[in-house]
């Protein structure tokens, strides 16, 4: 969506590589063009078009849009790149579980790749001894930008997709210690405090009702704070301290990039976007049936004692209750099509957009809007439905330029339709209306309808109250699903339910 200005399904990435190849394969998605697990050749990417216009395109960070050289950043328009191809890895590059005797663990997050890191088109088998993902990605990007100084009249496009704060949660020790005690009150109390602060800052209305916690009591990491023993609370609070340390270290690195732009006199003419790619991580290691290997592997290789959490040889995550702190006041979190999974904040810095400088905007926008915005500012036209003799998808996003310069009051009108689907979780939005279908065991499997203008929490189902509107929305969904090649996935939900039962028998707090 970011790289193509169109939907994930039309771009071929209606699923991630891990669900297309490797241990997570979903039978219904096999040979489906909307679920290739990599960018399709039926889309033209932002860096490809900018390259054609003479731009110097560089990237350092997580790619996750293809796990082979043929689908790497270099193959899709980046001149220089250092990338983690897959969904996640140790932030210090320490991967003991990839030894031959534990190779069954490998497919879990690896998505069928033959390697984890690519330096342009060369596989990397060894990383620097002091490697830490956020630091290394940032330093490589700044090096690429410095390399451009020999030709400083050439415009650049730089992409820095951090791996942080994806699990395993790992951060420099001094950053972790800064947050000792901050999360000792537990997720329920911290969530209340955050919601109150959001109201005071004007990010949500003063009468906004937050979504209730989604309860999965059998999960150790989802038990209410008062129902957990003292050690479980300490471990949980420590994981959040690690997470916070990761985020602050990432912020420090972003500051390094901004300082470089300032020092080289480029900040005034550079637009900077910062945003998350999804809601907070609430799954337990992106759970799937393959995870039956996780428990013995973690116990064998990693030291997850309280004092060691966050170290290079630890491997932990914080669970879905803390995730719902991160997505408050919205419902659920990453991997879901409720607001908690898809609604994120975005920061934009561009001094020339003085009409909107310093504002907090609540206007609806999507990640598909970023590519048309950049092309608009760069004076580069999208080729439409044909690129270099091949049929390609057109962009669905819309440029922000007219809104940011004060010429329009909104980016999208009330007729704009946006759809989402991932692992059978489906949603469609038109104006402020949204329909969502959440399969079992998380939901009823029936469509619900909400008015987001008055119900951020997606709490009041208006399907029965406005049957004509619901029929209209459902009709829009069916048309959208057909056009975008969406498959109704069912088997994965059954597999997830089975896996949940398996993990009920394991005390994960002793391991992660």
Could you explain the architecture of this structure?
The chain has 512 residues and is an alpha+beta fold. It has a domain at 1-92 and 109-163 and 365-415: 3-Layer(aba) Sandwich (Alkaline Phosphatase, subunit A), CATH 3.40.720. The chain has helices spanning 17-20, 46-52, 107-110, 133-147, 173-177, 186-201, 230-263, 294-301, 320-326, 339-342, 370-378, 401-404, 467-484, 491-504; strands at 56-62, 80-84, 117-119, 122-124, 156-159, 272-275, 346-349, 386-387, 390-391, 417-422, 425-430, 433-437, 447-451. The strands form four sheets. It has a five-stranded mixed beta sheet with strand order 4-3-2-1-5, with helices on both faces. Helix 6 runs parallel beside helix 9 (320-326). The two termini are 33 Å apart. The model is unreliable at 103-109 and 501-507 (pLDDT under 50).
């Amino acid at each position: 969506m970011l790289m193509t200005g169109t939907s994930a399904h039309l771009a071929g990435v209606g699923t991630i590589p891990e669900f297309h190849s490797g241990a997570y394969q979903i039978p219904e998605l096999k040979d489906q063009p909307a679920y290739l697990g990599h960018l399709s050749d039926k889309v033209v990417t932002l860096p490809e078009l900018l390259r054609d216009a003479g731009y110097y395109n560089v990237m350092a960070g997580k790619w996750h849009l293809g796990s082979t050289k043929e689908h790497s950043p270099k193959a899709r328009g980046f001149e220089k790149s250092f990338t983690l191809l897959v969904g996640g890895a140790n932030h210090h590059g320490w991967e003991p579980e990839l030894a031959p005797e534990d190779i069954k663990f490998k497919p879990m997050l690896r998505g069928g790749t033959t390697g984890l890191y690519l330096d342009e088109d060369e596989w990397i088998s060894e990383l620097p001894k002091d490697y830490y993902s956020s630091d290394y990605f940032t330093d490589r990007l700044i090096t690429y930008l410095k390399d451009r100084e020999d030709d400083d009249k050439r415009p650049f496009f730089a992409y820095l997709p951090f791996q942080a704060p994806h699990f395993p949660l790992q951060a420099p020790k001094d950053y972790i210690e800064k947050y000792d005690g901050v999360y000792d009150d537990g997720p329920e109390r911290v969530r209340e405090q955050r919601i109150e602060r959001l109201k005071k800052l004007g990010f949500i209305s003063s009468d906004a009702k937050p979504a209730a916690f989604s309860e999965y009591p059998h999960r150790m990491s989802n038990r209410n704070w008062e129902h957990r023993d003292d050690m479980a609370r300490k471990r949980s609070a420590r994981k959040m301290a690690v997470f916070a340390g990761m985020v602050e270290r990432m912020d420090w690195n972003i500051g390094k990039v901004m300082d470089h732009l300032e020092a080289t006199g480029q900040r005034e003419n550079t637009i900077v976007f910062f945003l998350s790619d999804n809601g907070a991580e609430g799954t337990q290691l992106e759970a799937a049936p393959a995870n039956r290997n996780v428990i013995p592997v973690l116990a064998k290789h990693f030291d997850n004692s309280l004092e060691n959490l966050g170290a290079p040889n630890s491997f932990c995550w914080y669970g879905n209750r803390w995730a719902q702190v991160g997505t408050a006041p919205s419902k659920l979190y990453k991997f879901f099509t409720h607001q908690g999974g898809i609604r994120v904040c975005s920061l934009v810095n561009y001094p020339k957009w003085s009409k909107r400088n310093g504002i907090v905007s609540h206007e609806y926008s999507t990640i598909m809007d970023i590519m048309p915005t950049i092309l608009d500012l760069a004076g580069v036209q999208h080729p439409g439905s044909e690129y270099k003799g091949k049929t390609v998808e057109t962009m669905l996003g819309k440029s922000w330029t007219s809104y940011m310069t004060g010429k329009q009051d909104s980016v999208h009108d009330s007729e704009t339709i946006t759809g989402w689907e991932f692992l059978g979780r489906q949603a469609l939005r038109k104006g402020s209306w949204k329909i969502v279908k959440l399969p079992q065991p998380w939901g009823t499997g029936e469509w619900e309808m909400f008015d987001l203008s008055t119900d951020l929490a997606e709490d009041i189902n208006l399907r029965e109250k406005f049957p004509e509107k619901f029929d209209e929305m459902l009709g829009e969904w069916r048309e959208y699903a057909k056009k975008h090649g969406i498959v109704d996935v069912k088997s994965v939900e059954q597999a997830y339910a089975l896996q949940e039962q398996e993990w009920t028998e394991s005390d994960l707090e002793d391991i992660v």
